[in-house]
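[SOLVED] Need 3D model of a two-part complex

Original post:
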Amino acid sequence: MFAACFNSPAGAVDRRRKVFAACQPLLRILIALCVSFAASASHAELVIENAWVRAVPPNSSTTAGYLTLRNSGDEEQVITRASASVAGAAEIHGWIETDGRKKMVRQHQVSVPAGAEVVLQTGGLHMMLFRLDPVPVAGESVRLCVGAADQPDVCADAIVRMP
Amino acid sequence: MKASVWRPLLALLLMLGLAACSEPKPELPVNTRLGGDFVLVDQNGLMFNAEDLHGKLSLMFFGFTHCPDICPATLARTVGAWKALSESEREQVNLVFVTFDPVRDTPQHLKQYLNFFDPSVIGLTGSVDDIADMAQRFGVVYLQETAEPGAEQEYMFSHSDFVYLLDQQGRVRKLFKSDFNSEELIADVRSLL
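Solution:
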């Protein structure tokens, strides 16, 4: 097929058209492959490491996920969404302390600078998992995902364990 | 000065030094500003007051069960420190969790929730006013916070997060930050047994 595409005789316009038409499906596949490769390369710049989920009582509707976001790329990645395989919804929250009280505050965006990492951990930034169904049990694995705008999700398997 | 004079002097200094090293840790002071009576309901639906804790030490923590991060982490850490004690020591120490979310944390809910950490954890709930009264006595600050529109939970609580060590008379002897050092807590518990 490659021979048919690139070794067409010069001069015969209609023949070229026929050859071009014959090559179109292959060109589409090549373009799709290139786009896909470019997307996965960019996607690979952000990775999740050391992911785990807190084991909670069976009547809990919420738990928390912890992980490290590592950005090995040259551009800042801004996380705008989160999800988890066992949760109806997931959000990233942080803590602020005022007047002796600690308060959780939803983070609509979490920036991971180029070449840097952001750690989600107890008492700091963490992923809140809501509407657990089922409530994960210690030893099980939960799929945690985050995503930057206009980027595919980045996911990792997180072990469920006691704190 | 002759060596015969130096030797007894050195021996005396050494003895004094050893005595200073082995001096027991000062007793934990009684915090007279915090603590006091309360009447709440335990996880079995029974009335529970301050005197029900007397006769044992108590490790007490205030929180709410819909809190996914600091509350379960602190509960687990406290129960973990308690489990590091010997069996006879554990029998002399109460574990107490007080909720400030009585609407969601009913006795039944508390019982199932706390069983996960250890069945011996005492869960206390009650009326909004009774909990507020107790919290005030113990210097616990908390505030119900309405969530932003579209948030998953209607409300959360912002709150202080100390673990209280009470003695056998229910007096507050020490407050620990939620990320306390377990060895320090265990040593303080043992100092009061």
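Edit: Chain A has a mean pLDDT of 83.
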